[in-house]
Amino acid sequence: MAKSLEELASPYLHGLLPYIPGKPIGEVERELGITGVVKLASNENPLGPSPLALCALREALPESHRYPDGGGYYLKGRLAACLGLTPGHLILGNGCNELLELMARAFLLPGDEVVIADPAFVIYGMLAHLQGCTTVRVPLKAWTHDLEAMAKAVTTRTKMVFLGNPNNPTGTAVRPTELKAFMDAVPEEVIVVIDEAYIEYVPQELVPDSLGYVRQGRWVIVLRTFSKIYGLAGLRIGYGMAPPSMVELLERVRAPFNVNSLAQRAALAALDDQAHLSSSRQVNDLGKAYLSGELHRLGLQFPPSVANFLLVDLKQDGRAVADALLRMGVIVRPLQGAYLKTHIRVTIGTPPENERFIQALKAVL
Ligand SMILES: Cc1ncc(COP(=O)(O)O)c(C=O)c1O
Question: Which CATH class is domain 5-48+275-364?
C-alpha cells in the first residue's frame, strides 16, 4: 500500500504540534460579532510603531517593485556602529525567529543534545525536536533560569544551549554575574544562543555584557528584534550578533532577500526614534505598576517581570479564564505545560487596555 503523507514527512514531525500564535483582533471580532477587542497576547508594543518608522515606510513604498538589499548594508552598518561591532558580526532575519531557525538548521544534528530552561520560549524545543535532537529541560529556579543547573546539564553531547533573557513566558532575567559564571563554566565548543528579544525593557543594571562574548569570538549568538519595543512585529525583522565565522555559516542557510525592504527602512528609522523608545518604556513601567497593584489586590501572584508581560497564576484553569476573557473582548495567552495550566500570560498594554483587562478579569473570577 502507498505510504501516507505523514509517513513521507520527516519522522521528526511526528508528535509535533504547530505553534499557536495569539489570535488576531480581526478574527476575534469576526467570530464574536463585536468591536473594540483588546489584544494583550503577543507582547507587542501597544503604542504601535515609531512615527519616524511610519514616515520611512511611506517613503519606501514606491520602491516596492525592487528586491530588497539582500545584504542589509545600511541597517547592518548602523547597528554595528551603535553596538561597537562590525557589519560582519551581524545577520538580519525575518524576525529573530528566523535566526533561531537558521541556527538550528546550520548546527543541530540528530542525536545532539540541546539544553533549555523549562518553561522557555516554545520555539527552542520545537526546533531542537525537528532536527532530531534530544532536548534536556532544566526547571527554572524561583521562576528564573537556573544557570548553575543548566551548566551542570551540559554533557559531551551538548551542541547548543538556548537562554531567553528575559525569559518568555516568565519575564524574568538572569543577573549579569550569573551569566558570566555560566559562560565560565560551559565548555567553549558549546554554542550559546542568548535570545534578548525583550532586552530594551530591562533596567540597565540587569543587562549583561552578552556582546562582550561576541567580540571575544566565543561561539555565542545574541538575538534581538524589532517586533517588541520597536513596535514593528508585523514587518518581521530581527538581528543576530555573532562572531563573523558563525555569521558566515548562517549566511549559507539564509534564504536570499529574507528581510523585506520596508522592514529594513522602518527598522533604520526606528533606531533613530529615542522619544518613541523612552515613551514605550514609560508606558510599560506605569502599566506594570498598575497591573501589579491590581493583581495583588485580587490575591494573584506573578514572577517579577522585567519585560512587557506578566505570567499570572490564577489558581484555576488558565485556558478557561482566557476563553472567558476572550468572550469579553480581551485576548490573553493561555499556556501549555505541566506547571503552567493555571497561568495566563498578559502583555502590558496602554492604561485603558490594562484597565479593561482588570475589569474583565474581576468579572470572570
Ligand atoms: C523570547 C522570544 N524570542 C523570540 C521571539 C520571536 O520574535 P520575532 O518576532 O523577532 O520573530 C519571541 C516572540 O514572541 C520571543 O518571545
Answer: alpha beta
Strand order across the beta sheet in which 309-313 lies = 309-313, 343-347, 333-334
Which atom belonging to ligand 1 lies closest to the Cα atom of 228?
9
Report whether CATH 3.40.640.10 matches the domain 53-272.
Answer: yes
Domain residue ranges of the chain, discontinuous segments joined by +: 5-48+275-364, 53-272
Read off the pLDDT of residues 76-118 as tens digits, 9 standing for 90 and up.
999 999 999 999 999 999 999 999 999 999 999 999 999 999 9
**Which ligand 1 atom is nearest residue 94's CA?**
11
CA of 61 to the centre of ligand 1 (A): 26
Query: Is residue 121 within 6 Å of ligand 1 at its C-beta?
Result: yes
Q: Record the pTM.
A: 0.97
Exposure string of 24-36, with b = 16+ CB inside 10 Å and e = fewer, is ebeebeeeeeeee
